[in-house]
Specification:
The chain has 12 helices and 4 strands. With about 250 residues, it is mainly alpha-helical. A two-stranded antiparallel sheet has the order 1-2.
Length: about 250
């Protein structure tokens, strides 16, 4: 027994009354195995092991890359050719987030989108039935700035030829304007006053004159020809001419 206690004392660290225990080794998670490829199944040359990075480099440029974390990425040569790929930036905490590019809207055309979205289905239904019943004329058929005096007319007025061109080129607003104009043209046997009422019939004429003057879209001239005997709004043309003289 004396030999047992002496052996135990030798195993105790100096200055400690506790029994010495062997440090436990942490179990490491097994490494994720990469999918076998034609290159990875070949025996390594010169007795060396074929690493994951070497297998990735041997892939064809058109094949996706698989990094040791198991994430699949497009080849660097096609990084900026894929529309779904977003460049990454690394933040101070090490997390990767997609880069957000600010959208340019110098004329604040999004104000029209915000106003149209909640009521656009109602607008389509009213125009298809041939009678406007609710209030949406300012942002569905906008007119040139300087004609309206109300707060809504001034907020949704088009301030220049460039803004009118940008409105037509907008992926949402341009198509909606043309669609609503065609719905008005599709009404049979009713005047524009019976469809829109007053003074919205005059606003419609101003809107058709504005967008007909800045584009080659025939639907605006067709609306003027059918409901106004082909006569555009003179006040709208005068304001456009004045804006062009001041800008030149």
């Amino acid at each position: 027994m004396r030999g047992h206690w002496k052996a135990a004392a030798r195993r105790r660290p100096a200055g400690s009354n506790r029994w010495c225990q062997r440090p436990t080794r942490r179990r490491q998670a097994p490494a994720r195995s990469l999918p076998q490829t034609a290159e990875s199944s070949r025996p390594a040359r010169h007795g060396g092991a074929t690493t994951a990075s070497r297998r990735v480099l041997r892939r064809k440029p058109s094949d996706p890359q698989i990094d040791p974390r198991g994430l699949t990425h497009p080849h660097p040569e096609t990084l900026y050719q894929l529309p779904h790929w977003e460049p990454k930036v690394r933040h101070n905490r090490g997390r990767e987030c997609p880069v957000r590019y600010p959208m340019t809207d110098p004329f604040d055309l999004n104000r029209f989108v915000r106003a149209q979205d909640p009521v656009y289905r109602d607008v389509q239904g009213e125009l298809a039935r041939g009678r406007k019943q609710t209030h949406w004329m300012w942002f569905i058929f906008p007119q040139i700035a300087g004609l309206g005096v109300s707060a809504m007319s001034q907020r949704y007025a088009i301030g220049s030829r460039a803004e009118a061109e940008a409105y037509l080129a907008h992926p949402i607003l341009g198509g909606r304007l043309i669609e609503c104009t065609r719905l008005v043209l599709a009404v049979e046997g009713r005047t524009i006053n019976a469809i829109l009422g007053a003074p919205d019939d005059a606003k419609f004429r101003s809107s058709m004159t504005l967008f007909g003057a800045v584009s080659d879209e025939p639907v605006f001239d067709q609306a003027l020809a059918r409901y106004f005997a082909g006569e555009p709004d003179g006040a709208t043309l005068e304001i456009l001419d004045g804006l062009e003289r001041t800008s030149s």
